[in-house]
Amino acid sequence: MKAALLVRKGHVDLQEFPEEKIKTPDEALVQLDALSICRTDLEIIHGPTPTKKMPIVIGHEGSGTILEVGENVDHVKPGDHVLIDPNSYDLTCPTCRKGLTNLCPNGGLLGRDGDGVFREKFATHARNFFRIPDSIPVPIRPMIQQLSTTVHALNQIRIEPGHSVLVLGLGVTGLLLVQLAKLKGAYVVGTSTLPGKLELGRKLGMDAAIDRAKVELVPSVMALTERRGVDIAIETSGLPQLQRMAVETLAPGGTLLQFGVSGEETSYSLTDAYLRELIFKASRSSQPRDFVEAIELVGQGKIDLEYLVSGVVPFDHVAAAIELSRDRVKILKIVMLLNT
């Protein structure tokens, strides 16, 4: 079968790869039909994110159709359309026993810690497959994986109707967080330096938009909130300067939800946090229940993923798709279809 392998930093090859087979009674085999490229993939291919081996099959966002199941598998069957959870976890460590499978010290991510899903067929433990309704279009199915991470993030904090929420950065995750916050009844403010992203945010329900290329963020937020500040600030870039501004926009008792990561260090005034009783919360990856919720939201038409699709190409054009995805200004998601 064909698979996209990272053979060295910055170089991906579409190569013949050993045919995938079920190895245990708890596994299932899927025929991939759609794959999408994430910023994490680009960090693995071109950036500083290391892999546990090289060459390695890349990719962690994929969907497909079940071909075969092991004798112990009963929640999916051949013919089912499924989404792949790319997270591995052991279920036996103290962290997993607390339900924190996304933080398993022995876990990992497909395409980084083990061969990923950018291939024609894929087999793994059946608990990593979640059924998808036939009504969800094939090109948007793999992107539900990224939605699951934003669902997980908002499940870490409390948003009530009437709360004010500031989303810093309107990339893929920022725009998903805008939609999710609106579903909870929040007044949502988004900020970016890209007019196109601000306009898209408005179309997705954003109540106010702040163009940081034209105005200063903190005074603008204070003006919108009658000098009080926002109840919740969600930082999606991981950039220290935006993290610090996010804290400055918070109202007394406010919450910073740190979603983005960049590897750069930042600092906050703990005295300021003490005086305003601020809450700091971070979010990492997703758990099985978040996949269930994300699929339901898309299946019920409550979350729009169609806007994310910047282009659709055949899997054979994986190298070109990766290059297109590096354009942060014009591109949100490139989807690759198999068997087209």
Overview of the molecule:
This protein has 2 domains: about 1-145 and about 285-335, Alpha-Beta Complex (Quinone Oxidoreductase, Chain A, domain 1); about 155-280, 3-Layer(aba) Sandwich (Rossmann fold). About 25% of the residues lie in helices and about 30% in strands. The chain has helices at about 40-45, 95, 145-155, 170-185, 195-205, 215-225, 240-250, 270-275, 290-300, 320-325; strands at about 1-10, 10-15, 25-35, 55, 60-70, 80-85, 85-90, 110, 120-125, 130, 165-170, 185-190, 210, 230-235, 250-260, 280, 310-315, 335.
Key features of this structure:
26% helix; 2 domains; Rossmann fold; Quinone Oxidoreductase, Chain A, domain 1; single chain; seven-stranded mixed sheet; six-stranded parallel sheet; 340 residues; alpha/beta
How much helicity do the residues have? 25-40%
Q: How large is the share of residues in beta strands?
A: 25-35%
Secondary-structure arrangement, i.e. CATH architecture of the largest domain: Alpha-Beta Complex
* Distance linking N and C termini: 15 Å
Number of H- or I-type helical stretches: 10
Give the overall pLDDT as a whole number.
96
Low-confidence stretches: none
CATH class of the largest domain: Alpha Beta
CATH topology of the largest domain: Quinone Oxidoreductase, Chain A, domain 1
As a whole number of angstroms, the C-alpha radius of gyration is: 20 Å
The gist of it:
Helices cover 26% and strands 28% of the residues.
Helices, strands, pairings?
Elements: E1 2-8, E2 11-16, E3 27-36, H1 39-45, E4 56-57, E5 61-69, E6 81-84, E7 87-88, H2 94-97, E8 108-109, E9 121-125, E10 129-131, H3 144-154, E11 164-168, H4 172-183, E12 187-192, H5 195-203, E13 208-211, H6 217-224, E14 230-235, H7 240-248, E15 250-258, H8 270-276, E16 279-282, H9 288-299, E17 309-314, H10 318-325, E18 333-337
Parallel strand pairs: 11-12, 11-14, 12-13, 14-15, 15-16, 17-18
Antiparallel strand pairs: 1-2, 1-4, 3-5, 3-9, 3-18, 5-6, 6-10, 7-8
Helix pairs in contact: 3-4, 3-9
